[in-house]
Design a protein that fits this description.
alpha+beta, Alpha-D-Glucose-1,6-Bisphosphate, Chain A, domain 4, 8 strands
């Protein structure tokens, strides 16, 4: 089932802490947003897993790479396994690095561990059961100082006009002492850029 709250904001904003798979409930705050994307869920997931091509669409994180591949993809559904097995793609248990553009003069490099990559039953009643989730968590600080986990869900459904669409839910929850002093404005702006860029690149490819 989906872990996303039903009331996620359409535009990125700070909200009270949302539960995440590794740490559960609690934390200092979350940044969250959602979007309707005119394309299949697997195509959306592909763009998020494909780190070498972030520069094509992701102005918040134009540079990203896999530092250590995940140990095993054999338990993944075949369509997800086919993506995760490609060079430079995110896989369960992999360590990755993001270079986030926080401002014109500040780029922050962050290492993360991929905590979940899975398919799930969305129970939405109007689609074909295709739904995927990927999550990663920060590794730069001890948990008491800063802990974070970001979750992205892609739930496919069939619109009234018969087209295939994806409900995209995107949130990250921050906790620990440093959670109180993080640059919320830059994080919110980055989430918005990420979501707008993902929607744009998927819909442009589908329309070709």
């Amino acid at each position: 089932m989906s872990l996303a709250p039903p009331d996620l904001p359409k535009e990125a904003k700070c909200v009270p802490p949302i539960s995440v798979p590794t740490y559960g409930a609690g934390g200092v705050f979350s940044v969250a947003c959602t979007a309707e994307i005119a394309g299949p869920a697997l195509k959306c997931l592909e763009k998020v897993l494909d780190l070498p091509h972030y520069g094509v669409w992701n102005t918040f994180i134009p540079s990203a790479e896999v530092l250590t591949p995940g140990p095993d993809t054999s338990t993944l559904p075949p369509e997800v396994q086919a993506l995760a097995a490609q060079p430079g793609f995110v896989s369960p248990g992999s360590r990755i690095r993001f270079d986030a553009v926080m401002s014109k003069s500040w780029t922050q490099s962050t290492e993360l561990d991929v905590s979940f990559l899975e398919a799930f039953d969305p129970g939405n009643g109007n689609g074909n059961g295709k739904a995927y989730r990927v999550a990663w968590k920060g590794t730069s600080f001890p948990g008491f100082m800063l802990r974070s986990e970001r979750v992205q869900e892609f739930v496919e459904y069939v619109a009234e006009d018969g087209s295939v669409r994806t409900r995209y839910a995107n949130w990250e929850t921050f906790g620990g002492m440093l959670g109180y002093v993080l640059p919320k404005g830059q994080i919110v702006a980055g989430f918005e850029k990420w979501t707008v860029g993902l929607k744009k690149v998927v819909e442009e490819e589908i329309s070709k």
